[in-house]
Amino acid sequence: MLKLEDCIIRNGAFELHANLSVAERARVAVIGPSGAGKSTLIEAIAGFLPVATGRITWKGQDITDMPPGARPLTMLFQEDNLFPHLSVAQNVGLGIQPNLRLSPTDHAAVRQALNRVGLSGMHTRKPLELSGGQRSRAALARVLVQRRDLLLLDEPFAALGPALRAEMLDLVQELCEETGATLLMISHAPEDARRIAGECILVADGAAHPPQETTALLDNPPKVLRDYLG
Ligand SMILES: Nc1ncnc2c1ncn2[C@@H]1O[C@H](COP(=O)(O)OP(=O)(O)OP(=O)(O)O)[C@@H](O)[C@H]1O
Question: What is the pTM of this model?
Answer without folding.
Answer: 0.92
